[in-house]
Design brief:
It is built from 16 helices and eight strands. It is of the alpha/beta class and 389 residues long. A hairpin with a 5-residue loop joins β6 and β7. Bound molecules: fe (ii) ion. Its EC number is 1.1.1.1.
């Protein structure tokens, strides 16, 4: 048996009002620096929307930290935003960066932190194979959605929004944050639709971590715990979005999912989701959920192009959500999306046969697809997507 290691160095602070301890964590990672300079990287106006702007500044400034805020505009963590942010970080010599927001704000913060101590544009690292020689500026991530898992992963999604639009991933062991503060009160005011869509991202990540060729015994434990927690609490949050206990459960499920796929990466579902998001403006979690049930069926088949253990692992995934077979599990996922008032067919999000060809042309991210248990070909992907049309 090949020895597989599990590695995750992020210090996790989880719980209601855990954000109130932010100053302590910041102090820990800037301890010898007097009046350390902190940069908060966040989505535009998010701190005010959450009502934490003054609170967080007060907490940090009363302990002598000098705090500045970098507000990121738009949905994507783009090359342009990251390069501008990296130049700011290099010029101002910040001692620590705090990323607060959803995946794109945390990914932007992660890239700014690593580029703060590594020269040049992010393009060099994404497209020209330049190595990240140095560790970044210490980073603390604070998620405001329960979904992405970026707070505990070593990579960041980066979007080239230039002429040749494309999704990249910058990944390196040096990119892990020092700490993650997961406070369910920050998710409390997240609109219901956003809550379930980001939760579906976590759900997909947990399932993909479990069926990934790259799984290990520890990622399995996190993934199999995450799957039922997220599945049941997604239905609950839809009925009662202000219930803090359900928010807490979902945040915990999302953390477990993040810890699982931080070591396995994702598979075909995520790979195919990126062109769906980029070209059809479908939010990331929904873009994953749209094909999840069909990939569940695809990966559960016993064929010569599937790894031997896959059918058994797919049965365990089905068990975890209370289904008696992968067929039943696929139907339950589709039913869940209908209950959550989400589309389940591609035409509902504006994708036609021509759109499917675009997705096929761009949906094979090598780093993701190679970990799918069953080999995916263009023809097989076409068949899957046509079933969903
Ligand atoms: Fe994701």
């Amino acid at each position: 048996m090949t020895l597989k290691t599990y590695y995750n160095p992020v210090e996790v602070l989880f719980g209601i009002n855990s954000l109130l301890n932010i100053s302590e964590i910041v102090q820990k990672y800037t301890k010898s620096i007097k009046n350390a300079k902190i940069l908060i990287v966040t989505d535009k106006n998010l701190l005010n929307i959450l009502g934490i702007s003054e609170k967080i500044l007060e907490l940090l400034e009363k302990d002598g930290f000098i705090v500045e805020i970098f507000e990121k505009e738009g949905y994507f963590s783009s090359i342009k935003i990251i390069d501008n942010g990296a130049n700011l970080v290099r010029n101002k010599n910040y001692n620590l960066i705090i990323g607060i927001g959803g995946g794109s704000a945390m990914d932007t913060a992660k890239c700014m932190a690593i580029l703060g101590n590594n020269p040049g544009s992010i393009n060099l690292y994404l497209k020209e194979g330049k190595t990240l020689e140095n560790y970044g500026i210490p980073l603390i991530e604070v998620p405001t959605t329960s979904g992405t898992g970026s707070e505990v992963t070593r990579w960041a999604t980066v979007w080239d929004l230039g002429e040749k639009q494309k999704k990249y991933s910058l990944s390196d062991l040096k990119m892990y944050a020092k700490g993650a503060i997961i406070d369910p009160t920050l998710v409390k005011s997240l609109p219901k639709k956003m809550s379930v869509i980001t939760g579906l991202d976590a759900f997909s990540q947990a399932i993909e971590a479990y069926w990934s060729k790259n799984h290990n015994k520890i990622s399995d434990i996190y993934a199999l715990q995450a799957i039922p927690i997220i599945f049941s609490n997604l239905q609950e949050i839809f009925k009662d979005p202000s219930n803090i206990d359900i928010r807490k459960n979902l945040a915990f499920g999302s953390l477990l999912s993040g810890l699982a796929f931080s070591n396995t990466k994702t598979t075909a579902v995520h790979s195919v989701s990126y062109p769906i998001t980029l070209h059809f403006n479908v939010p990331h979690g929904l873009a994953c959920a749209l094909t999840l049930s069909q990939f569940l069926l695809f990966n559960s088949e016993k064929t010569e192009n599937n790894i031997d253990e896959a059918p058994d692992r797919l049965r365990k995934i089905s068990d975890a959500i209370g289904a008696d077979s992968p067929d039943n599990a696929a139907q339950m996922i589709t039913n869940l999306m209908t209950t959550l008032n989400l589309p389940t067919k591609l035409h509902e999000v504006g994708i036609d046969k021509k759109g499917i060809e675009l997705i096929i042309a761009e949906g094979f991210t090598p780093d993701r697809v190679k970990h799918n248990p069953r080999k995916l070909t263009e023809d097989k992907l076409r068949k899957i997507l046509h079933t969903l049309l």
